């Protein structure tokens, strides 16, 4: 029996059960949950980096976005509050639309 030891989406046990397979899950406490969210973000980011098609890349971005929303809720925030912070940072420091790549800055 394969051992996964990773955070999964809420419906995964239901999907496994529908196949007739047995499985073991546990509910994490808040501290464990945040740790596992961070691990899962790394996993999904790696999958995004390795995506070979635009469709696959967009699927992985959707997974990352779902995890970002979950992490914001785990930090007692909401996706809307997170978006507000993102907009404030964009107004103060800009975004990444211009595809700028900083090479160097002269020392004083």
Description:
The protein is mainly alpha-helical and 108 residues long. It has a domain at 12-82. It contains 4 helices and no strands. It has helices at 12-18, 30-50, 54-74, 79-93. Residues 34-68 form a coiled coil. InterPro entries: MSMEG_1276-like_NTP-PPase_dom. This is Phosphoribosyl-ATP pyrophosphohydrolase.
Short description:
By secondary structure, this protein is an all-alpha fold.
Average pLDDT metric: 97
Helix content estimate? 55-70%
N/C terminus separation:
61 Å
Number of helices: 4
Major sheet characteristics: none
Can you tell me the residue ranges where pLDDT is under 50 for at least 5 consecutive residues?
none
Strand content: under 5%
Number of strands: 0
C-alpha-based Rg, rounded: 18 Å
The succession of helices and strands, N to C, reads HHHH
Mass-distribution shape: elongated
Structural class: mainly alpha
Helices and strands in order:
Elements: H1 12-18, H2 30-50, H3 54-74, H4 79-93
Helix pairs in contact: 2-3
Protein name: Phosphoribosyl-ATP pyrophosphohydrolase
Organism: Savagea faecisuis
Coiled coil: 34-68
Please name the defining characteristics of this protein.
108 residues; mainly alpha; elongated; coiled coil; MSMEG_1276-like_NTP-PPase_dom
């Amino acid at each position: 029996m394969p051992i996964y030891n990773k955070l999964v989406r809420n419906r995964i046990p239901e999907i496994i059960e529908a196949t007739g397979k047995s499985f073991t899950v546990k509910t994490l406490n808040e501290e464990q949950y945040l740790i596992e969210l961070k691990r899962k973000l790394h996993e999904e980011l790696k999958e995004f980096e390795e995506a070979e098609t635009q469709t696959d890349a967009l699927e992985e971005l959707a997974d990352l976005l779902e995890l970002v929303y979950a992490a914001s809720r785990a930090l007692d925030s909401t996706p809307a509050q997170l978006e507000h912070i993102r907009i404030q940072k964009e107004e103060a420091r800009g975004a990444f639309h211009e595809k700028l790549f900083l090479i160097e800055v002269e020392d004083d």
